Amino acid sequence: MASPPNTPTDGLSTSDSGQALGLQRVEPRHGPVREGKVECNACPVLCHISEGRVGACDRYANQGGLLVRLDPVVFLHQQPQHAEPLNLQPRANEETVAQALPATAGAEHGVFVTGIGASTTYPDYKPAPFIVACKSKGVDMVTVVTEGIFSYCSLKVKIDTDRYLGDERAAVMYQGEEVGHVTTAEYGSQMLSVGGVHHLTGGSKKQGRMALELMHVLGNQQAAEVQIENGAKVVLQAGQAPIVDGVTEQRMRVGCGSAAVGMFARQCLGLCDEVVVVDDHITGVLTEHQAGRCLHMKPSGIRIKGRKSTPGRYFQVAAAGTGWGGTDISDPLSILGEWNPEEAWPGLRLLMTSTTGEHAAWFVLDEHLVPQAAPLPPAVQQVVERIGDNCEPSLVSVLFLGGAGGSLRSGVTDNPIQLTRAVKKALVNVTCGGAPAYVWPGGGITLMVDVLRMPANSFGTVPTPAIVAPIEFSMKLSDYQALGGHMGFVRSLDDSLRKGAWHNDGAPTQLRWETPPTGVNPWPLDNPPMLG
Question: Which terminus, N or C, of the chain has the lesser number of Cβ atoms within 10 Å?
Fold first, then answer.
């Protein structure tokens, strides 16, 4: 059978807007489409999908000869003060757009169309699926909505733990494949970089698939286990405590050893003659520290095995590990040398603790200036508990980092550099699933977003391999026109709610409602630089 003149996701066969662009119908790249199949051009794979089957990404299917998007479009609903509540109860959470709202609901209520489930702009010549006009605080606004196919992307994973996970630059392994590396530690958190274009496309097919799978799982707030080269096995899940070698972490450090000495010095005064806070990075010693000197504490004669930095601060007291303060020690006395007999005295009271208070021990010097273990006095125990109380829960944080180029920018304007310039001038608010995105300085639109601020299951995949992520560009309507936007495709919010994407080929569009967490994300259309 001869191939149809265009692929179903183009919408060109039924869209006057597509014909207005002067776009030509083209033959599919993989040859004729056999009878009973439809071709999907939502990504470069160009699947030919049989009736009742789904494509390789599990996101598009052939239903009665129509290519349909299986996942619903996600709309954010903000309930403004003094507005009639939206009636979303009659049917299940997922329903057709035409059944969702009364005729003027979009205009009267806070509704924001996200890129989740919106479909893509691939290939580059298509305008974004949703270019939505509405008012915000009396200002005419437009939001350009799409799902981006990201090969140039990664996850930055922050793991709150003092435990040794692996050396900096050590490989992160998933299902036996190298998918990332350990990067710098940042004040009580170990950092991983996962994915990236070289892992996705520069290695074997299996390496690309495994990197993609791990990014997809972690981005969608699910759990995955990784193995650090010559290091720990870690279970990661955004918003949950990391599990390191089978042990669930409880606390993030209150600070380095020096910081802990400074913060709790006054509470130790009169209870302890010396305090050592053991830390893999900076071990603190109270009587030498500026805090102890300001409190007029007498020198204790203690000697620390390590490299002295400034008074009361020592580096490299032990190797990294899963013991006290992220070191490899289980006996805190192992970092002490002989006491200075000219300053130390029998009966000297010594508290040794870790940066989280999870490890603590109490010693008293005998007549030979040898520390002897003793029970923690109740008042000292309270100080140790105070250190623990000041530690935040140990969590895993996952940030998606991607470069928005190509199709994304062409889907917004026929002159893509204008969008880049407008973003850098803060004329455009960039969000991902309605969550605020940080745009890095320098060239291009390189954005970063916390996946926990996005709706659940915001990310998809295509087997090229690449991540599919939502992205929205919101701006004043006048600014959109000035940057050469696709004005012929601008539609009202009401129209978008009822009909779905402009290239909808007749299949019903599904939607899912999400209410943004109160106090977490600003409303995407209330960005001060745009409305000021």
Answer: C
